[in-house]
Amino acid sequence: MGFSVSATMAIFFATFLILFSVLYNSVNETFDSVSESFDDRYEYMNDKAHTDLDVISLTYSKYVDSLEIIVQNTGSVPLGIESTMLLVGGVIVNPDTMEVEGATTNIWLPLDALTITVSNPNITFDPSVNPRTCVNSDAGLTGPSNISVGDSVYVIDGTSIDVLSFDGLLEFTITDGANLVSPVDLKVSSDYLYVIDEGTHIDRFDIDGNWVDRFIDDATNASAPRSIAVDDEYIYIVDGNLHLDRFNRTTGLFVDQLIANGGTMTSPQDVFVSSYIFAIDVSSGSYHVDRYSLDGTGGTEIVASSRLSTPTDLAASAEDVDQNCLYILNNSREILVCDEDGSYLGRVSDGLSSSASGIDVSGKMFVSDYANGLVVENLGTSIKVVTENGVSEIVML
To answer: Where are any strands of DSSP class E within 243-285?
Structure first.
């Protein structure tokens, strides 16, 4: 009997040791797991607390429909590039390239700048954005009139052309007493700046402001050029408030009278070419905006005189965007925004005086304003960069 009790106690004790060992290992593993989770959480929170970003450049080019964002890692922790997300207008997009200091890598070190490029971003107008103005600078402008935007902003200012950055800073001034006497209108496209001078001819300058040649000087087919538009193939000229002519962009030679006076076109004041040909026209003192196919056919009024009061200039968004918008500088004090069918989308008057004269659009709205100089208005598309630990930076186009 004594042996049985001893054996039972031994079995009980052994079982206790086994159970204790299993329980201990389980508790220890749980503790280690919780401890690791706390460590990971602490490391995540610490990294997040030491992560910061600064968007140092945001550029959209309508000619190639491409968006470039340069973001600097201003925090103290390295970041993973593959885990960095970009949202355009609230939608995640896949960048074409993501490079640090011109090199492809997966590590984004503190103080390094990450350059993100995206083709065909959906840059659209949002009427609900308020406040909208992001730059209002005279930048040395004394009498700004027509404006055109390429990689910089070109503004006719008296007998000169001032060239400004997208931030409204004066870069340089084009002055040429022999070849820039009395500029009327201008368009920058690709490698050239085309300028109507003295109301008689079109000169070419390179984008650095150097005169190249008198490109179109045709007293027969462009006797009184008033407004100019440019696409990949042609230069379009409103001639004498009567009709629209086309010239070959490579040779400068006359191609045809694309839209004649009579019918839809009465007395064109301004023209802009994008997915369509858009023209400000006036008949019997009433202004209207008309739209034509690129071959000059299908002319139709899309914005009636009831919405307009002495419009002076118009521009359209890039040809390939999802929503092609038309921007009309109306009554020298507001931007009227419509879709390509003429449906009203909204109006913008923030930051404008009663003497605005020219508009162009390239990711933002750029307006030459006699009282304010250069006014830059956001279209309303949000650009958001999000890091692997959730820290983000938002800027507006």
So the answer is: 243-248, 254-259, 268-273, 277-283
With contact defined as beta carbons under 8 Å apart, do 308 and 287 qualify?
A: yes
CB-CB contact of 229 with 187 (8 Å)? yes
In contact, 152 and 163? CB cutoff 8 Å: yes
**For 121-163, how does the pLDDT look when each residue is reduced to its tens digit (9 = 90+)?**
888 899 888 889 888 888 889 999 999 999 999 999 999 999 9
List helix spans (H) across the chain: 2-49
Instruction: Determine the Cα–Cα distance for residues 173 and 155; give it in Å rounded to an integer.
Output: 9
pLDDT tens, residue by residue, 3-26: 455 655 555 555 555 655 655 555
Which residue type is seen at 103?
Answer: A
pTM: 0.86
CA 86 to chain centre: 16
- The amino acid occupying position 361 is V
Q: Which residues, in sequence order, are CB contacts of 229 under 8 Å at separation 6+?
A: 187, 235, 236, 271, 272, 273, 277
**Residue in the structure block whose two tokens are 């004790």:** 13
Beta carbons of 342 and 289 less than 8 angstroms apart:
yes
Structure tokens at 342: 């003429």
User: Which residue type, as a one-letter code, is found at position 153?
Assistant: V
d(CA 118, CA 86) in angstroms, rounded, equals 9
